Amino acid sequence: MTSAHPSAAPAPGAAAPRAGGRTRRRRPPRAWLGALPLLVFAGLCFGLPAGALLYGAFTRTDPASGATEVTGEHLHRSLQGPYLTSLTGSVELSALNAALATVLGVLIAQAVVTSRRGTLRGAVLTASGVLANFGGIPLAFAFVATLGISGVVTRLGHLDTLGWNLYSFTGLTVIYLYFLIPLMVLVVVPALDGLRPQWREAARNTGATTWQFWRHVGLPVLAPSLLGGFVLLFGSAFAAHATAAALVGGSVPLVTLKIADALSGNVLVGQENVALALSLDMIVIAGLVMAVYLPLQRRSSRWLH
Amino acid sequence: MRRLRPRPRIRATGRTVAALAVGATALTALTACGAAPEEKAEPGAKGVKSSEATSAADFGGLDKLVAAAEKEGELNVIALPPDWANYGELIKAFQAKYKVKIKSENPDAASADEIAAVKSRKGQKRAPDVLDLGIAFARSGAAENLFAPYKVTAWDKIPAGQKDADGRWFNDYGGYVSIGCDAARIKTCPETFADLLKPEYKGKVALNGNPTKSGSAFGGVYAASLANKGSFGDIQPGIDFFGKLKKSGNFIPVESTPATVEKGETPISIDWDYLNAGYADQFKGKGVDWKVSVPSDGVYAQFYSQAVNKEAPHPAAARLWMEYLYSAEGQNLWLKGYARPVLLPAMTEDGTADKTFVTKLPKVSGTPSFPASDELDKANATLAENWDKAVS
User: Fold this and answer.
1) Which A residues in the span 51-90 are in contact with B, Cβ-Cβ below 8 Å?
2) Model confidence pTM above 0.70
């Protein structure tokens, strides 16, 4: 691009004339055109489905007459009985896993960052990249083969006598941590790299203990990334479906499994709208998590300035 | 229809399963690719359009139907796994016999997915022509007016309780709930539901999925209910039975698949007899000695149903497929896959049933009875409400 025009974006329509006499700092009025592809993409791939979801969650179509009416019954149903249990079950599982993976992930990442060996760092980061994307049925079956009832490790270590059962809340937690911890490592390593050794030296020279350094310098600086990581992990665990479906059927109630049952099964008929209402519940929960996270993040990033 | 292998998870995007599903539907609707060409009204012998023909006679006989189907040259099928009830061979044989190319979409789809595909692709040439549905979906789809009425040549031989009076759906093949068991790993194989409670089966008993989703698992709970003083109208004793199994540690919630069977993770699997019998063949010589028995205390049979999409893009080919499935040849191919075709009683009488396959079927005594629509609905509702509580 050699054109020095500030607004060289190819405008499909006639653009608004440039308003003169404005303050310099104001963005040129056509800057938003640059974001147009993103807006269109988001509208198509997110807005449209979200709209369809909202519509389906609040309407009922009579199969015989084809008449559609607005109703709150799907939402009401989705917050009752087994559906409510599945929502709380999902939130519990996701929050617990995200918290555990955040702590463990940071410890591992810190060990990697402070190690003097470049090879270790490369190996751990590469492995994390692979494992963080390892999911679904292959992951479930890998665990069945190693830690299932007739799994190799189970039999070698006689884990069943210790009460180990892969097909339970605990088992699912172990599997989720298997991909959540590497994800946390990937997210938090750059932030840990940003902790300059000079800060630690400065703290030492002024007589701070290790604990004081972390309490007053390290953690406050890291807080935004840790919070962000936690939210990402929560979302990952919350939306996970295939692994759980293959392993625990209905014995650990999870909302994604319930949605799948209602949306694409051979047994329940006419529950599609309840599935949409459940998805809406998930969006609301994700929204609440963000509502807590954003102000906290803003507060914690203030410490950096 | 049945065996559900959930799609791989799409992670780190935070999108839910549902949003994806709805999104796909919405996008399909938006980019209505390939609208179906307007059907040229080619009246048959009686001046009936293919899409309105309700029998082969409307075309002026089977040969005319074949000609019309071959002119279309294509057939869209959905949710037909090749290793399920011998569908792989059926599809091959049909293509060899007629000049009609079969496009098989999403073999592992469930009945709900089939109905969704019919609704969301109305008027497109990618819509499924024919459907193989769980009974509840066949009935609800007929009520929603999604199917074209059609009566195959063998219509009168289909027992009255196994077809819709107007021909909008008709049962095709079925099986009994059976207990499959790996005799290489289990000393004495269980033969009844009562046997399953024995402590020697700790951590060994599985279902093929979650009964609120998988048809065969649902059948398993229904059969367990019949074995425990329940009835078609009352599935609760079956739910309680599995609750008891879970507490004793005998029941494991993992979904039994060919992989878990081969590995020995699910040495006892409750499943349709045609699937279990298929495993026995599949794993011969692989260290798995798979024995199948239909439990005498809980005999439950269930059929799937065929239906023709009312808006089928290939209406003649769809009807020809039905004629083929309900010919002696098609029925025997199902039979070869250990499924019991709906015409089996009639074919046993007139001697067209292939005896080698009949003798290979797992033994059952008595004639099956089927739950009524309202009993099924009630059982579904009870299961959805109480299953999680019982097994968690």
Assistant:
1) 51-53, 56, 63-64, 81-82, 85-86
2) yes
